[in-house]
Amino acid sequence: MQRTARLLALIAGLCACALATEAAAQKYPTRPVKIMVGFSAGGPVDVVARIIGDRLGAKLGQPFVVENRAGANGMIAAEGVAHADADGYTMLACNSSTITLNKTLFKDIRYDPQGDFAPLTTVISAPLVLVVNPENPKTANIKTLADLVAAARAAPGELAYGSGGNGNLAHLAMELLSQRAGIKMIHVPYRGGAASEVGILAQEVLAVFDPLSAVPLVKGGKLRALAVSSAERLPSLPDVPTVAEAGYPGFDLSFWVGFFMPKAVPAPILETLHREIVTAAKDPAVAEKLGSQGVVNVLSPAEYAAKIAKETKELAEVVAAANIKAE
């Protein structure tokens, strides 16, 4: 009899907790929500966080306040969110490297990218554009990805490509392509993507996986686009094939910005935030603002988790095979 009474009391307690959680979620939010950004103000992650945060605040009736904690490739902010209270009032806005790369590149990481967070959705995706300089005599006849691969095979270990630094996405994209194509090129790390773009324009390197900032240079004839790194073609460069279309199926690597919450945040809150972020990103006025940072791309939490798992495994293999060390 006493055992039955204790069991009934336990069930009643669990039901009460569930009802309290649901009630709290229905009222959510009742105070400002902090969006942690691990990078400086004005960068892609910060811009996306502020655009989405403003729309969330207007829709949900409480401010979504961006707090910049720059440093360690986004790890400071990520660690703060990973260890925050799971009450729905601390959110992380970050880029792909913070989640898919840091654990591979850094030994002192103090959060589990896949174990500590509940993924909400990506918001924008920014493919890379593989470019050469048409004015460089060495690349005058390189008009397709196949041409570049052929040239690299004819001169193994002699042709140079640039990137924004050791371990950044442009570096890894070229290493991934090199491994898939069975070629070897020399890596020239610059201090940032803008510097690598200057390097290819100055004919210091033959090729670069450039960010979307290269599109005007391609359209102006200063650079020649061979392929884009995403699974789908860029609307702004519809005639440029994807790397996958050019002979390397499954190649899909882009810089993305998305949102996360601590793992144990109640499901109703996660569902509310996912729904409202997706709704905001798809709004034409918001999408236009986001367009300066990349292509609007939203995913379900399950799709997002699968994407993270795939990219993490793939990039870890690239880093190990190429023996890449973080700067």
UniProtKB/TrEMBL annotation:
Keywords: Signal. InterPro entries: BUG (IPR005064), Bug_dom1 (IPR042100). Residues 1-20 form the signal peptide. Belongs to the UPF0065 (bug) family. This is Tripartite tricarboxylate transporter substrate binding protein. It comes from Bradyrhizobium betae. The lineage of its organism: Bacteria, Pseudomonadati, Pseudomonadota, Alphaproteobacteria, Hyphomicrobiales.
